[in-house]
Amino acid sequence: MGANNIISREQAEALIREQVVPQIFQDVPKKSAFMALARKLPNMTSKQTRIRVLDQLPMAYWVNGDTGFKQTSEQAWDNVWLTAAELAVIVPIPEAVLDDAEFDIMGEVTPRVNEAIAQRVDSATIFGVNRPAEWAADIITRARQAGNNVSVSDAKDWYDLIMSENGAFDKVEELGYAVTGAIGAMGMKAKLRGLRTKDGLPIYTASMQGATSYGLDGNPLYFLDNGAFDKTIAQLVVGDFSQAVYAIRQDVTIKILDQGVIQDPTTKEIIYNLAQQDMIALRVVFRMGWALPNPATRLDGSRTGCPFAYIEPGTPVTTQTVTYTVSDASGAVKGAKVNVAGAILTTNEEGKAVFNLRKGEYDVTVKAKGYKTSTDNIAVNASAVEKAITLIEAK
């Protein structure tokens, strides 16, 4: 027997016990910034909820002399609808895998599905990404039509882009609203550090004692870390989030299925037969609706403004011009309200209203006093769109 003979690690590999850390290293599930900032309404009791919105304000007039005639005025209201859209997912798991797992798979999956729901809500409401067909246009689209987009092409510093005249805050305040919150990409932290007023006071602060960890000019600032922020569309979004409302039709509902089949949504081919393959499936459903009612105010009587503004990226996202020309039997109709998925513009002397829209489908409503309401639907792709609407007088 040689003097150098030993039992090596390779020979004893089957006997060596591996140390396994008794936890799963993962990030904390993220929540929705939109739902944290916007105003929550009572839960919906049906698929649609109607909000009555002030559409036209009355006017007052001076009376000339002792025998002058007093003039008349009117007030009008409009309907804004919250329509519930559904988010859902099914997670199939073989029962044998569930039994053999060292951790509670259901307990690990559930918070991640909730995080995915939060990500989808923020993406759709703020940026219009994967926007449900039932929902109105997103915050960015609405702000863009109101002219509340701030360009970085003129090389302003970040203080001017956010706080100065024609900056993001000013765009909101000019319409009579106060900024109540801001949402930025994670990369905005580097741009905001050290940002100060002309008097040297910091406008970007970090604190562990406030409602959020960060603040911008005294307002809560969320850095979206749930993957929802689209930096190709905006760098920073600010606004009066109390003007945005949402309501839940069905809160996050979890059901464990052990019977039935799961089909491919496209081919309809059966992928899994739960009973036959000894599987269960975690089904999660969530339904909610949201709206930006944008009532008439003394500073925005036509409702063409928006209580939100945003700072564009260095290369603004591509939009297409969508021109609506409104006329009647005798010619152009001035002052008609063209409502494209919630974004409102009024027609000019030539009866035209010009929108700048990203790719997608939009429902359109055209209203004018003395005429029947006209509805339309447009699909925006890679070129400009021209549409003509002829209004019919109401009888």
Spell out the blueprint of helices and strands.
Blueprint: H1 33-37, E1 39-40, E2 48-56, E3 76-83, E4 85-94, H2 95-100, H3 105-127, H4 139-145, E5 149-150, H5 158-163, H6 168-173, E6 181-184, H7 188-192, E7 204-206, E8 214-216, E9 219-223, E10 236-239, E11 245-257, E12 261-263, E13 270-273, E14 279-291, E15 308-311, E16 320-328, E17 331-332, E18 337-340, E19 343-346, E20 352-357, E21 360-367, E22 374-380, E23 385-390
Parallel strand pairs: 1-11, 5-15, 6-9, 16-23
Antiparallel strand pairs: 2-3, 4-14, 6-10, 7-8, 8-9, 10-15, 11-14, 12-13, 16-17, 16-20, 18-19, 18-21, 21-22
Describe this structure in words.
The structure is a single chain. The chain has 395 residues and is an alpha+beta fold. Among the domains are: 82-249 and 287-298 and 306-311, no CATH class; 320-390, Sandwich (Immunoglobulin-like), CATH 2.60.40. Helices cover 15% and strands 34% of the residues. The protein contains 7 helices and 23 strands. The protein has helices at 33-37, 95-100, 105-127, 139-145, 158-163, 168-173, 188-192; strands at residues 39-40, 48-56, 76-83, 85-94, 149-150, 181-184, 204-206, 214-216, 219-223, 236-239, 245-257, 261-263, 270-273, 279-291, 308-311, 320-328, 331-332, 337-340, 343-346, 352-357, 360-367, 374-380, 385-390. The strands form 6 sheets. It has a 7-stranded mixed sheet. A 4-stranded mixed sheet has the order 1-11-14-4. Mean pLDDT is 89; it is low at 23-28.
How would you name the oligomeric state of the polypeptide chains in this document? single chain
Give the biggest beta sheet: 7 strands, mixed
The largest sheet has its strands arranged as 5-15-10-6-9-8-7
Strand content: 25-35%
The helicity comes to: 10-25%
What is the end-to-end distance?
Answer: 114 Å
Q: Indicate the overall shape.
A: globular
| H and E string | HEEEEHHHEHHEHEEEEEEEEEEEEEEEEE
Rg (CA only): 28 Å
- List segments where confidence is low: pLDDT < 50 over at least 5 consecutive residues: 23-28
By DSSP, the count of extended strands is 23
Structural class label: alpha+beta
Average predicted confidence as pLDDT: 89
The tally of helices reads 7
